From TrEMBL:
Keyword Transmembrane helix carried by entry: yes
Name recorded for this polypeptide: Etoposide-induced protein 2.4 (EI24)
Regions crossing the membrane: 22-39, 59-76, 82-99, 131-163, 191-208, 213-233, 253-273
Domain of life: Bacteria
Keywords from the named record: Membrane, Transmembrane, Transmembrane helix
Length: 292
């Protein structure tokens, strides 16, 4: 608990400092709206709320406004009060959207995803709309400093949800590899998939913000390390057909927050080293037939 409180306090202070820059404040508002849109599209209680309240959209609006109340206060005290009005108007628009997770379609609708990357295929069926929205914002707002990096991080958040459920035992056996080779295969599969889809955004950012070259490459490398850590964390807690444990989810949250918090920068690396050994031990009983 003290670590979480210290993390929240530092993040609040950091955001307060950065929000005093208009360009960053606009990017932060856009990011907040995207996060709320992700939440809105994934809600399973929309039909229930329609029966419960005639103006259920206003209930959604109130919920999202309360959820972002700390962010509202940071905007206010950092001198960006006018952006609160824009944020509230966008939240109201999101609340009236009747979108939900996209219906399942055949996997061949995703030619840009490797045919053996079932996590991405399943994840894209549920998150294609938010993924495309964030990607579009990353392109449209690329002239603003740091915005594209923020969008790359938000894309990483979406991708991390693809790793929250463990595959069945038969899919685990499909590559027919030893635990060591299996982990190497899965890490390579996920990292290459992320690179293929996000490299155009990174190159656009470098073209429009050449002075951020070192920072952008460092941030992108950090994102890849976070993704590798998420893969290892999943298999360190592997249970066939089960969601990852709450403890693993908390560790993954710290992992995802690490690019934003300087004192957590080494967390993905330390986590990867630790969870690699755990993942090998966890997978050995399942993949012992392929061990040489």
């Amino acid at each position: 608990m003290p670590v979480l409180l210290a993390t929240a306090a530092f993040l609040s202070w950091w955001l307060f400092q950065k929000l005093q820059e208009v360009s960053f404040a606009m990017a932060a508002v856009a990011g907040a709206v995207v996060v709320i849109l992700l939440l809105h599209t994934s809600r399973a209680d929309k039909k229930f709320m329609q029966h419960l309240a005639a103006r259920h959209q206003l209930v959604f609006w109130a919920e999202y406004s309360i959820l972002l109340l700390p962010f509202h206060l940071l905007l206010l005290f950092s001198g960006q009060g006018l952006l609160i009005l824009s944020l509230e108007m966008l939240l109201l628009v999101v609340s009236y959207l009747h979108v939900s997770s996209l219906p399942k379609v055949k996997t061949r609708a995703y030619p840009f995803i490797h045919h053996q990357n079932f996590e991405w295929k399943a994840g894209m069926r549920q998150n294609l709309l938010p993924f495309l929205l964030i990607y579009t914002l990353g392109i449209a707002l690329a002239p603003l400093p740091y915005v594209t990096l923020l969008m790359l991080w938000l894309l990483l958040l979406i991708v991390s949800t693809f790793l929250q459920e463990c595959e069945p035992y038969n899919l685990l056996l499909l590559p027919e590899k030893s635990p060591h080779l299996f982990l190497k295969y899965k890490i390579k599969l996920h990292l290459l998939q992320y690179i293929v889809l996000t490299l155009p955004l990174l190159l656009l950012h470098l073209a429009l913000q050449p002075t951020h070259f070192i920072l952008a490459l460092a941030a992108y490398t950090m994102f890849l390390l976070v993704l590798m850590s998420a893969v290892l964390l999943k298999y360190a807690h592997y249970e066939p057909n089960e969601k990852v444990s709450s403890a693993a989810s908390l560790l993954n949250a710290l992992n995802l927050a690490s690019p934003l918090l300087p004192f957590l920068l080494l967390f993905p690396l330390v986590s990867s080293i630790r969870n690699y050994k755990k993942a090998i031990n966890r997978l050995t009983p399942f993949l012992h037939d392929f061990s040489s």
